[in-house]
């Protein structure tokens, strides 16, 4: 019980609202390391978590046509300084169902912590999933986060993923998302990350628009300073008529930090289109000088621009 | 209030402003006229202190003090600001944040009033972001509104008429007059003779040189009869 309260407290400090865990109409799951501390299902939505050796298997099922009113809250954390968490998540969103998931990943004391997420999201036809993952890491930089996901977006279905890591040190991050969208399916993957110190950020997001009229957006907003390193590989392919995609990557570099962006776009049908834009380097001079012409010092202006970009 | 003495600026080894001399008096509207590419915006950037526009020769004097070596933000804190011709876009910064930026005393009601002044509904715009979702005209009006809230002592308005439809143009002219009524001195940069006419005095710049200065009417007439008829200025 003490662990549960500590996790909820850490969740609150990371910006979550702990009252949701008392609400009978809100589904949730609370996990510390590889131990399930609490879970709740609701009508039309089942959350099942099974502890196993070295990890946890989580099944999340949303019944056909169910529109889940309240966001589902997932709270994953490792409270001790050292530890390992491995979660295998299988989410199935049945036909016409709609759900929003808020995942908070908290590692406030991490010195040597590893968080591994291996997820499969299956969205049946006309289903909708909004998955927002917010990380809160301590300042020691001792976290290794490895979120991998495969995403299948059915006909007329829509997924929006958002990964936010702007509080505390990143540590080492290795994102690998692979998604595929069927006819008129929509996939949108957004990552906003702020690295500093010796942080290492690696993002690989890949989307394949295989269905007629599918839509895709891969958007990254990364800021690195001090000696942090960032590498963003955004891959978007369109192979069906009227499929449209866009890759949009901005990486702001300060100090001795380094950044790399690799947009890989491909079109395999004459009526498909994929565009990309990338800007890497220091803060945009025009933006900087505009704010300075309002009286902000250079460092204040940089803070405001980066803060806005990561918001 | 502002005195420019023998200003020479080179950029990328090319002279873009030569031997510019003029003086702006407190609370007047001073027009800077000239065709596209004449050096009007470069002059604005030099007065503001933008990177790459530091004078090679000459002085920029504000309130009797040379400001050549001051960074932009220090010039802004002295009361100088610039409404940019090509305005920057900011992800995540709301119109409200932007309007409050330069205000000494953050006053939301004044921000709302500034938006109304440029014919934008505060209810619709305050929470919008100053990003690519705004049209060019909307962004232009927000830029002008931000000058209004800042209450600067000297506002350089770089082509406030560009991207503004004819119906709103009169409002923009009225806005410039309102600024001076509130005690702001205005340098109005334009290539439109009809807009320049609201200035009391003006200078005409062509190919980096100050071609003529004096009462606005005289400068505008010179611009219309000598410059606008010349094919190279069109």
> How would you classify the helix and strand content of chain A by structural class?
mainly beta
Assembly level:
heterodimer
User: How many alpha or pi helices of chain B?
Assistant: 9
Structural class of chain B: alpha/beta
Low-confidence stretches of chain B: none
Helix content of chain B: 25-40%
Mean pLDDT of chain B: 90
Our count of helices of chain A gives: 3
Secondary-structure element order of chain B, N to C: EEEHEEHEHHHHEHEHEEH
Beta fraction of chain B = 25-35%
Task: Describe the model.
The complex is a heterodimer of chains A (311) and B (234). Chain A is mainly β and 311 residues long. Chain A contains three helices and 19 strands. In chain A, the strands form two sheets. In chain A, strands 2-1-5-7-9-11-13-15-17-19 form a ten-stranded mixed beta sheet, with helices on one face. In chain A, β1 and β2 form a beta hairpin. Chain A is globular. Chain B contains nine helices and ten strands. The model of chain B has no long low-confidence stretch (mean pLDDT 90). The interface between A and B is medium-sized, with 23 and 24 residues.
Question: Nutshell version of this structure?
Answer:
The complex is a heterodimer of chains A (311) and B (234). Chain A has 311 residues and is mostly beta strands.
What is this structure's SSE topology?
The complex is a heterodimer of chains A (311) and B (234).
Chain A: H1 2-13, E1 28-32, E2 35-40, E3 45-52, E4 55-62, E5 72-77, E6 82-93, E7 98-107, E8 112-123, E9 128-137, E10 143-153, E11 158-167, E12 172-181, E13 186-195, E14 200-209, E15 215-224, E16 229-238, E17 244-253, E18 258-267, E19 273-281, H2 285-292, H3 298-310
Parallel strand pairs in A: 1-5, 4-6, 5-7, 6-8, 7-9, 8-10, 9-11, 10-12, 11-13, 12-14, 13-15, 14-16, 15-17, 16-18, 17-19
Antiparallel strand pairs in A: 1-2, 3-4
Helix pairs in contact in A: 2-3
Chain B: E1 2-11, E2 14-24, E3 29-33, H1 40-48, E4 57-62, E5 65-66, H2 72-78, E6 80-83, H3 95-101, H4 108-117, H5 122-125, H6 136-150, E7 154-158, H7 166-181, E8 185-190, H8 193-196, E9 201-206, E10 209-215, H9 216-227
Parallel strand pairs in B: 3-8, 3-9, 6-7, 7-8
Antiparallel strand pairs in B: 1-2, 1-4, 4-5, 9-10
